[in-house]
Design goal:
Radius of gyration: 23 Å
Largest sheet: 5 strands, mixed
Strand order of the largest sheet: 2-3-8-7-6
Shape: elongated
Number of strands: 11
Oligomer: single chain
Structural class: alpha+beta
Length: 243
């Protein structure tokens, strides 16, 4: 359910060309696209926090909480955590920089592990009543590592997490006349990049992405009319989504 980067770029160029208001290069587009995707992604969590304070709506189709959660779910992942016997911790993933937010930690496929803070751990261990057991395990989360207690647990830990969206890239080759030709192949970093990366956002975000990129494009080509038009449309979209 990703948003196709080629469709977005060509739509942006079509709008700019139609109005004869300038042009943005693939390199400029890729930088703007990365910024826009992160903005939209980060807004999900602020919107979710706000919506959770509002009483539930009886209409399933007007339930904004479900809608936001649906968009976030595009980036939810499951992980079987590997145990590091030297450091006495579980690794959530071998590429920790992609982790945006930890979800649920599970032991033995059936038991949720409770997260605690470092300053709570000493107090918990001092009492026999609160000391962690295999029936009531706990964990600390530090530097993308899971420290599970009791220490006798060395396997059967899994977790969910939300990954950071991968930067979108409109990759290209150069034609005989110097024109840019879209390269849909698997992405390989370089200058120029080989292959492309789609937006890792829900398909419902396509219009929002295009409008926001147009707004930033207006800054690059120094056209205030593009900025104003796109900003008004983005604001209208946000109001409609919350009404």
């Amino acid at each position: 359910m990703a948003v196709n980067v080629d469709i977005v770029y060509k739509t942006v160029l079509s709008v700019l060309n139609k109005e004869q208001r300038g042009y943005i290069t693939p390199s400029e587009f890729n930088k703007i696209a990365t910024q826009v995707q992160l903005e939209i992604f980060n807004e999900y969590f602020n919107e979710l926090s706000q919506q959770l304070r509002i009483p539930d709506n009886d209409s399933e189709y007007a339930d904004h909480i479900k809608e936001i959660q649906e968009k976030i779910s595009v980036l939810e992942r499951d992980a079987i955590c590997a145990y590091n016997s030297v450091g006495k911790y579980f690794e959530l993933t071998t590429t920790p920089d992609i982790v945006y937010r930890l979800g649920t930690v599970i032991y033995n496929e059936e038991m949720e592990v409770q997260q605690v803070q470092s300053n709570e751990l000493l107090k918990i261990n001092l009492s026999k009543l609160t000391r962690p057991t295999t029936q009531f395990p706990i964990f600390e989360y530090k530097d993308y590592k899971l420290y599970v207690y009791p220490k006798t647990i060395t396997s059967l830990i899994s977790a969910t997490y939300i990954k950071k969206p991968e930067d979108p890239v409109w990759g290209f080759t150069v034609g005989n006349r110097g024109q840019y030709i879209y390269n849909p192949n698997t992405y390989v970093p370089g200058d120029p990049p080989q292959g492309s990366v789609d937006f890792e956002l829900h398909e419902k975000e396509q219009t929002n992405i295009i409008l926001r990129i147009l707004m930033y494009s207006g800054v690059i080509i120094q056209n205030p009319q593009i900025i104003q038009m796109a900003a008004q449309q983005v604001q209208a979209e946000q109001i409609n989504s919350k009404s």
